[in-house]
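Folding follows sequence. Below is one example:
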Amino acid sequence: NALDLSRCVYRSYGLSYRSDYIYFPEKIAELLESGLMRSCVGINADGQVVSHLALNFITTKSKVGETGQAVVDPRYRGRGLFEKMKKYLAEYSKDVGDYGFYSESVSIHPFTQKGNLALGAHETGILLGYVPEGVQFKKIQGGEQSVRQTTVLFYMKINQEPHRKAYLPEKHSDMLKKIFEINNLDREICEAENYDLNELSEVSQFDLKVRPEWGFAFLVIHQFGKDIYEQIKYHLINLKLQKIECIYLDMPISDKWTSYFNKSFESLGFFFSGIIPELYEGDTYRLQYLNNVRIDKDKIYAVSDFAKELLDYTLVEMDNSIKYD
């Protein structure tokens, strides 16, 4: 059904969908065969694909995937297909032993947030300006975007995850504890007894992933080294020069050095975003940086009380962030 899926995406988004592989059936088939993508589709009486929801994995051993490529043919909206597909994926994921999955719900309308909440998912963060302008949502009022749009991070717990330690940056410890609590995560809040920089290796281990078609990049720290601040500073400057609009910095919250370096990274202009549970064999703590991005606060829907609290918290952090030039 790969070809029919591409047709369904076109009927829903035209050519505005930024993950361009979704328009190429052979690329879809390759991802499905590799196990990096798991798909659920809705098919009508004529055998056409009229809805789709994917679960995307970083590696074939990942226990938490990201839901994405959520598409419902405009002719079939209002029938609860998104909720049905996500419920089906949850049941399948439970059977195969996944811990859960996360998703980014757009905030230009309330529908996907309501769908996530109805299925038992909870908010874990806010990504300001994550969706580029120009993405169109056919037959949804207000579906055309004139500025980059914010998304709400959700996590849906499927199976019990392992007990984990968490070293929380002091500045955000109260909010992070709320996120752990509302998502019912088994976490032990820890404080480092001391920070001896001599414990660190000379060279850090991190990845840089750039998505120019979406205008964002991810700096993913796997192991802190003595050079980490200068490395992040260097790549931040280069990404800004490339006009990458949204830059995200991911760190393992089970590593005490995440708490230690948080203040240094925020001095560069990064600010609070949230967490993604079990993304890399443990929780990922995320900061965000906006490179001359205008956020229209009046066009952000936050459905639940906690989403509103999380959004207000993040907007204050954005306003208080110090940009590095």
